[in-house]
Amino acid sequence: MAQHQGGAHGHDAHGGHGSLKSYVIGFVLSIILTIIPLVLVLNDYVEGTAANVVLLVTAVLQFLVQLLFFMHLREENKPRYNLMSLLLGLLIVLTIVLGSIWIMTYNTVAH
């Protein structure tokens, strides 16, 4: 009978997992990026367009923290299938959102 070794098929028992330090840093950054807009908006430090900008910037930073610290996007070896899938997904979402905004903005029927 053939005996299987842990690394015989290219599977590493600890590969692809982040360290505790990485998870803690990601968690702390996520908490900070959640509290910043909450405090600024609830205490009326920013209003209107400035509030929207703060929310948008912290949301994008939160997205990057999630990708880097929890989805392990930076630890990936070549070929980068996950990155390519992510970029394709973002392109599709961007096309749908911008197309919807365009249709709602210019929804006039020419007579």
UniProtKB/TrEMBL annotation:
One of its GO terms (biological process) is electron transport coupled proton transport. It is a multi-pass membrane protein. InterPro entries: Cyt_c_oxidase_su4_prok, Cyt_o_ubiqinol_oxidase_su4, Cytochrome_c_oxidase_bac_sub4. Keywords: Cell membrane, Electron transport, Membrane, Oxidoreductase, Transmembrane, Transmembrane helix, Transport. Coiled coil: none annotated. GO terms for cellular component: cytochrome o ubiquinol oxidase complex; plasma membrane. It comes from the Bacteria. Its main location: membrane. The chain crosses the membrane at residues 23-43, 49-71, 83-104. Belongs to the cytochrome c oxidase bacterial subunit 4 family. This is Cytochrome o ubiquinol oxidase operon protein cyoD.
